[in-house]
Structure formats: C-alpha cells, structure tokens
Amino acid sequence: MNELRVVKPRQARSRATMERILTALEELLAEKPFDQITIAEVSARSASAPTAIYARFSDKTAMLLAVHERFKERTLDKIIDAIDSVELPPEEFLAYAVGELVTVYRDNHRLLRSVLLSDNPVMYGRATEIWRALSAAIAGRLAEHIPADRMAQAERDLDFAVRTLLSLAQQELLFGTQSPTRFDYPDTEVRARLTRILVDACAPYLNP
C-alpha cells in the first residue's frame, strides 16, 4: 500500500481551498459510493484544479483520510455534547443515545463504509476513539444511578454492549441492501432492540 500524504495548509487561503475540497468529497459521498467518485468530480465540485488537489493529497484515499478526521472531530463533539446535556431516566437516556448513534450512521453511511473498507490503521484508530468515547460518556452519565462499588463491572458490561452495537452497525455498512437477516426490521424496531441491549447490560447495576 502506498503511503498516504496529506499536506496540512498553513495559510488561510490554502486552508479555505482544502476545506472546499473536503466538503466536495463529503457531499459526493452523500450521493454515491466512494469508488465511483473521481478526482475530476471533486475538482469540479470544489472549484479547485486537480493540481491543487494533488498538491495537498497523495490520492483519493488520502482525501478520505482527511474527511474522516473532520468527521471524527465533528461527531465526537456532537455525541458527547448531546449525552452530557440531556437529563432523562436511565432507559429513556439510553434510547436517546441510541437514536443519536443511529442517526449519525444513517446520515454518513457511505463515508463510514469507505472507512471500514479502507484497511487503514489511522482511520480504524479514529473510529475506535469515537466508540470508546461513546462508551465512557454513557457510563459517566449513568454513574449517579449505579452504586460506586458496582461501577467497574457495570462499565465493563456496558462497554461490551456498545461493542455489540458497533458490530451490528458495521454489518449493516458492509452488507448494505444485501441484508444477511431473515427478516426485515423497521427503523423503530432496530432502535428499540439496540436500546434493549444497552438497558439489559446496565439493569443489574442500577439503583432500585
């Protein structure tokens, strides 16, 4: 695999050009799969010459790397702020957290599928940061409802439940419209079942 190169801009004008390029790629990913997007399309959408793109990125995958970095920063802020700001009973809170997560995945499924298929340790590391932060944030919000002497095991069980959610989300990304399940699950049922996974992980530890 060739080494990916992303040249960080120093001047305001160069930063603006890079932002246009990254925004163009992200917009195109909302319309079609990554492997169908060309440098020429990114160039046209961003009003940036191909030479300007190659001056900043070694190839299209390097652009994906930069887009994912921006996505990680934006998503972490959004999810953590949402979790920290909501005041709900534990089960309602977990349903809210699942709703936020499903929305993020559904709104960015082509970007996340491209990352999953990238075989790139940097992007995998960033995805790991998001899920670990999510697990820690949920545990932190539930801490007031769980006895201190049971918190360590509760966090461990919750983290495994979050990992289960991650596995299901990745399965959906990989298979896309080719569902591996025997049944169709409407969105409301998916959210309810995912919430139940988290609730069941936490229920034994919650204060009565």
Descriptive key words:
208 residues, mainly alpha, 9 helices, 71% helix
Structure description:
With 208 residues, the protein is mainly alpha-helical. Helix content is 71%, strand content 0%. The protein has helices at residues 12-29, 39-46, 50-56, 60-85, 90-107, 109-116, 121-142, 151-175, 187-202. Helix 1 (12-29) packs across helix 4 (60-85) and helix 4 (60-85) packs antiparallel against helix 5.
Show the helix and strand layout.
Elements: H1 12-29, H2 39-46, H3 50-56, H4 60-85, H5 90-107, H6 109-116, H7 121-142, H8 151-175, H9 187-202
Helix pairs in contact: 1-2, 1-4, 4-5, 4-7, 5-9, 7-8, 8-9
Order of H and E elements: HHHHHHHHH
Instruction: Please state roughly what percent of the residues sit in beta strands, choosing from under 5%, 5-15%, 15-25%, 25-35%, 35-45% or over 45%.
Output: under 5%
Mean pLDDT: 90
Treating each run of at least 4 consecutive H or I residues as one helix, how many helices? 9
Main sheet, how many strands, which sense, barrel? none
Our Rg estimate from Cα atoms comes to: 20 Å
Large-scale geometry = elongated
Low-confidence stretches: none
Short description:
This protein is an all-alpha fold and 208 residues long. It has helices at residues 12-29, 39-46, 50-56, 60-85, 90-107, 109-116, 121-142, 151-175, 187-202.
